[in-house]
Design goal:
- The structure holds two protein chains of two kinds.
- By secondary structure, chain A is an alpha/beta fold.
- Chain A has nine helices and 13 strands.
- Chain A has two domains: about 110 residues, NAD(P)-binding Rossmann-like Domain (Rossmann fold); about 180 residues, 3-Layer(aba) Sandwich (Rossmann fold), CATH 3.40.50.720.
- In chain A, α1 packs across α9 and α3 crosses α5.
- Chain A is elongated, with a radius of gyration of 21 Å.
- By secondary structure, chain B is an alpha/beta fold.
- Helices cover about 35% and strands about 15% of the residues of chain B.
- In chain B, the strands form two sheets. In chain B, strands 8-7-6-9-10-11-12 form a seven-stranded parallel β-sheet. In chain B, strands 2-1-3-4-5 form a five-stranded parallel β-sheet, with helices on one face.
- Classes of the chains: A alpha/beta, B alpha/beta.
- Chains A and B meet through α3 and α4 of A and α3 and α4 of B.
Amino acid sequence: MPAVLFHSLNESPVEWGAALKERIPDLDFRVWPDVGDPKDIEFALLWALPPGSLVSMSNLRCICSLGQGVDHVFLDPDLPPGAKIMRLVDPWMARAMSEWMLLNILRFHRQGLEYQELERQRLWKVLPAPETSERRVGVLGLGALGGDTASKVAALGFDVAGWSRTRKLIGSVESFHGEDQLEAFLNRTDILCCLLPLTPDTAGIIHVDTLAALPKGAFVINAGRGQHVVDEDLLAALDSGHIAGAALDVFHQEPLPPEHPFWAHPKVQVWPHVSAQSNADSAAAQVTDAIVKVFAGLDPNNLVDRERQY
Amino acid sequence: MPTIVIKLGQERAEGYINELHKLDPDLEIREWPEVGDPADVDIAMVWKMPHGELAKFPNLKLIMSMAAGVDHVLSDPQMPRGIPLVRVTDAHMARSMSHWAAMNILRLHRETAHYDALRQRREWPPERAFDADAIQVGILGLGYLGSHVARMLQAMGLKVQGWSRTAKQLDGIPSFQGADGLREMAASTNFLVCLLPNTPATVGVMNAALFALMPRGSYILNAGRGAQLVEADLTAALNAGQIAGAALDVFTVEPLPEAHPFWDDTRIIMTPHHAAEVHVPAVAATFLDNIQRCRDGRPLQGLVNLEAGY
């Protein structure tokens, strides 16, 4: 039987091995760097494997990302050419992500942080109320995660638009797509939510010009990847008052280094990458299905385009 | 000429008078206590009118509460009993209440207070997955506001059930009635949201005995009336760990007295009675609608059952 290779920085190989062997009892499960003969490996389940590690696995047929994102896979310039790349698409994870997004949207919308500060000062004071129908939410990325968030925000009565590479139709969500429509999308967005995949095209998408295209007093929420944001540009826009606040769950470097200015910035909510983690059971079922298909010579679900990188 | 008397906090009364005059410039509106001849008054729009004042209008045809609750009118021992009483039933207000409930359920579930504290210390905790399925909402009160909140939380993907005095039919929302139904719902609810009207039957409904029936580590949200929560019982349940946290918008005494122990309790999220924010133009339009219905002799909207007290 062909072998499966596993690598992760924070998920347990023991738990993964047990979960997969429960479903495929005679599975040959190897944990990097104990690869054995690299030619045995046909399926690799991994997160952030050092670049160049896969090059000798000439029979590798599928690389499965241990998460929704595949940017960590494409950091390796020496991917075996015959290997297909897939990612986990976990409906459970989309629900968790929407929860975190709604929490942060509503907290900005309903002045949750201002009321928290009033509470700290023991002040009983009602602030002027924002009107929901006048608050426009914009979601960057309308994939499995962004699509779920956009439709739930719309269900709460907000005016919602989404921007994606290609046109997507989701209920009452106004659709913008492509480079040409990005500015129009930003111009009408009071709360910007980033759930894009990280690709060469989307890296640094939240920068000085895109921030300036948002209306004054807009909010920025990022749960895509840290690399979507040019940190200095966001800080400058917060300090100038153009951007009213930011909630960030992802950073260029994680954990966020203690000296990073985001930590102490009064308008930034730093979250320690807790927006959505994949669910072990649901992920194991998906990986099992993929292994069975790949070993049978079939394509697994949720393949990624190697050109577009998502 | 038939005259409307309005009694509200001063600045807020002016806002309503302006909006009503935008809709109908011919309305004769006087702000209490400058009522002129009491015999002119056919409609009283009130929030916390001093007791005995309504009885002074001999030609009164309609009393309008300027809030969803009518306890402030019914508590007047000299309230003229034969006159119809209506309350605000406005979709903007219901949506605002839904947002308050959604935001605070998510703040409690995602342990925002804990993450705020970590941020203060620049601390990055180990990875953690939150289970969206862990939330089971139980709503006390399935009237105009409660049913709206129930449906909106359901649209967010949360599991929702509700309890009310009389049986209610809401798709996909199990409904409970009576004392036994309350106990039954509490046993399977870990986010209890109170939106009940203030009547003798609902005073103290959230007490130690009810908390004890809920799963350990449950959460309490109150946007009904302060009298429905036994405040000392909540503190005791928080100290015992039976209740893990709370979000309160209403209190036994408002504004909350400076010496109240809730101010310093980080397990309690507090807002100053603003859960259902009022969008004045929208509410003014519902007021005008009832004014016209009353004067044309058509059926009223939001008519209160004086027997039931809501």
